[in-house]
Amino acid sequence: MSLDTETPERARPEPIQAVPVRHPGRWLAVAVIGVLVAMFVHMLVTNKAFNWSFMIDEMFRPPIMAGLRGTIALTICSMLIGITLGIVIAIMRLSENPILRGVSWVYTWFFRAVPRLVLALLFGNLGILWSRIEFGLPFDRQIGALFGVQDFEARLFGFSAMDLLTGFVAGMLALGLSEAAYMAEIVRAGIQSVDEGQTEAAQALGLTRGQIMRRIVLPQAMRVIIPPTGNETIAMLKDTALVAFIPVSTELFFQLKAVGARTFQLFPMYVAACLWYLVLTSVLLVGQYYLERHFSKGVGRSGRAKVKLRGIVAETGGGASKADA
Amino acid sequence: MTGVKVLPQAGPPGAESRPMVHAEQVHKSFGSIEVLKGIDLQVRAGEVCCLLGPSGSGKSTFLRCINHLEKINAGWIRVDGELIGYRERGGKLHEMREKEVAAQRRSIGMVFQRFNLFPHMTALDNVAEAPTLVRREKKSAARERAAALLERVGLGDKLGNYPGQLSGGQQQRVAIARALAMKPKLMLFDEPTSALDPELVGEVLDVMKDLARDGMTMIVVTHEIGFAREVGDSLVFMDGGVVVEQGNPREVIADPKHDRTKAFLAKVL
């Protein structure tokens, strides 16, 4: 046909060579930010108050490292309590039993209302209430008196409150119990985000309510629960600094503060605290990424998590542009 | 093959008088709105019963009452002679415990309009999950049976795929295999092809026809008149929460007696 002979003449046109729009605003911003960064770096280097060599010397000392381990342990323990109890409270909140619903509401109300620092101090001083913590028949003395027995005691075992409620345990309980209240809300939102059809399909197959929760609903709720839980873990890591006031000595901030107080070099030690928390938080961010990828299994096509990672990298201004170049 | 059981009265040999599903005077209200106003229905073992009717007529609700996903307010439903959701003791009805209801549901398979596959599990695990959890089958045995069932619905090459990687028609076929894995004596289909693209409807209907040929008792809520005419042993037309007309599907479709049936069929045919 005639088209065939014409096509060579209708060749692909030249690519457009237009003058791009200029962005003077960007250059202005670069200049302003450049000056500010230069000023900041200059201050970091020249200001003697930072006392960098002293700080680097001190921040890896054994007591600090012990404090670091304590902070990590406290974060893990508190989050374990928080997540486990949070799931239980969330399930109670969604239960058909009105008493369980009420209890979980009161719990959430109390632990969300009281600041963590206050809770930590309260738990650290529980020893004032009891010298010993014992387990056995409740109200044994009163029951004994009812039947005319004086000083009737039915207690199986007990601990000295001072032994049991060490600073670490008190801090762990305060942070963990308070965390459970927040986790309960997160888990509840996650459970409610799962389509009702999932429960119906599982019911129609003859699964019991417990099996449906464990095998069908919770694994799917995880996708919604994990990201805020990551944020909670990071917040918890930082909140462990509060237990320095109980006081808990095997804790990072307590140790850094102690070095600072002893050497009258508080400021460098506060900077060291910043750096340590930055490092720990960054490690957690990596863990959160892998967890999220694991639980997004079966959602969307397989490439989705990778695309998301690329997005994060691009946002932080790293690899993506380099890869393009 | 389907020609053998033209009349519902005939049924497969040996099961003449045994009703698989027997419902009487079933009423169901959501709040102040009465959705079912006294449904009577009998479905014999091996019979394919198609429920037809305009949307909002209560056919899906009735289907969900049969496996107790909805509690009925009055009347009763028996499946294979067993009262659903309640136990009779000393002339009184006792509500069943959740575990007993779950046990009753095991023998009733259900297929949903929107598939409701478990998105976090592969096709194989979707099918093998309930047999391992509920029937306490060994994991390896359950998976073997699941693979065979998926093969039967034509998905032998999709065992490892997640639902999100399957087309609507494939997902619905996995859902049918999932229900069959519990070895049910009754299958409920709630508009199984309504959420599918037109070109995918056929593959799902083929699987259902295959099931009917094998003698499965089925209650199918559907808008597929062709399926009802070809495979159905009985047709029940519902409107406004009551059964308006029922009978042999070929006769009802060819010569509806009731005005509402006529009007409905005129619109869908």
TrEMBL record, chain A:
Question: Carries keyword Acetylation?
Answer: no
Q: Which PROSITE patterns match?
A: ABC_TM1
The record's keywords, sorted A to Z, are:
Amino-acid transport, Cell membrane, Membrane, Transmembrane, Transmembrane helix, Transport
The superkingdom listed in its UniProt entry is Bacteria
Q: Which GO terms describe its molecular function?
A: transmembrane transporter activity
Where does this polypeptide localize? Cell membrane
GO cellular component labels = ATP-binding cassette (ABC) transporter complex
Q: Which residues are in the ABC transmembrane type-1 domain?
A: 68-288
Q: Name a single GO biological process.
A: amino acid transport
Q: Which residue ranges does UniProt annotate as crossing the membrane?
A: 27-45, 66-93, 113-133, 154-175, 269-291
Q: Which Pfam families match?
A: BPD_transp_1
Please give, as recorded in its UniProt entry, the membrane topology of this protein. Multi-pass membrane protein
Recorded family membership:
Belongs to the binding-protein-dependent transport system permease family.
PANTHER family found in the cross-reference section: L-CYSTINE TRANSPORT SYSTEM PERMEASE PROTEIN TCYL, MEMBRANE COMPONENT OF AMINO ACID ABC TRANSPORTER
Instruction: Spell out the protein name for this chain.
Output: ABC transporter permease
The protein's organism comes out as Micromonospora craterilacus
TrEMBL record, chain B:
UniProt key word Nuclease: no
- Domain ABC transporter: residue ranges: 21-265
Q: Does the keyword Acetylation apply?
A: no
Mind telling me which CDD domains this protein's record contains? Answer: ABC_HisP_GlnQ
Q: Which reaction does it catalyse?
A: a polar amino acid(out) + ATP + H2O = a polar amino acid(in) + ADP + phosphate + H(+)
Question: According to the UniProt record, what class of enzyme is this?
Answer: translocase
Q: Which keywords annotate this record?
A: ATP-binding, Nucleotide-binding, Transport
**Which InterPro entries has this protein been placed in?**
AAA+_ATPase, ABC_ATPase_HisP-typ, ABC_transporter-like_ATP-bd, ABC_transporter-like_CS, MetN_ABC_transporter-like, P-loop_NTPase
Q: Which Gene3D superfamilies match?
A: P-loop containing nucleotide triphosphate hydrolases
The UniProt GO MF terms for this protein read: ATP binding; ATP hydrolysis activity; ATPase-coupled polar amino acid-transporter activity
Q: What's the EC number here?
A: 7.4.2.1
The family classification in the record reads: Belongs to the ABC transporter superfamily.
Q: What is this protein called?
A: ABC-type polar-amino-acid transporter
Q: Which organism is it from?
A: Micromonospora craterilacus
The taxonomic lineage of its organism, from the top, reads: Bacteria, Bacillati, Actinomycetota, Actinomycetes, Micromonosporales
